[in-house]
């Protein structure tokens, strides 16, 4: 059985090919139930994300241990086990963190290819963690951006990420506020529980890419923002179960479930056109789909 560490996973998943692999997976589909959650000691959580198609099966195993900060350890550990779907033979064990970061950013770029304006050149990223870094790199790779602004509650983290991104050719600068005005794409990957993006500040033609708020209690955009936009989900079931931005907007009566106009699979299959007008405001809400992990893992071992 092969083992792919973080560096090997990154090298095996270049952005354009990964976006294409995800597009094929969303188009063709696979069996992927909602993630399983199990409580662990000291407030920890075990997450299991299985998926399978005719040739491969896989499961991502994620341990979230908040108490690890006091131990000097990362709070999240993740691994991905890929197997042959017919024989059950294990094929590879991959670094789950790098796999998740890259497939998450690639899914956002895939959605933006349908939902953002083709002339998009200015990106605002909210957050300065690993997913935020991947989002900045992936969007720049796709759009060849003129400007990438990074905002974080901790300015020193935003500055440090900008330094790393510029080293990789991304025109990054720190942003003083999370104000979305003046940007073509706003990509958020935070742990916010109160809105950072307000509907009153949205401008015609913008695209929102909301990656954080992956629980019902989290939120990056307010109800007015959700109400004003065309909403596309990675999966409708996942977003209506766990996408805090949408779930809370529904609970407040601003929208109902039908406001989720499409899933990413609908766009990839041509069942929904995505953006239809330059002035339209669009939103992609992502909570993560196990099919993305399977597509990325298969691509990594076949590289």
Automatic annotation (TrEMBL):
Domain of life: Bacteria
Signal sequence bounds: none
InterPro entries, per the entry: NAD(P)-bd_dom_sf, ODC_Mu_crystall, ODC_N
Alphabetized Gene3D superfamilies for the sequence: NAD(P)-binding Rossmann-like Domain, ornithine cyclodeaminase, domain 1
Coiled-coil portions: none
Protein name: Ornithine cyclodeaminase family protein
Organism: Sabulicella glaciei
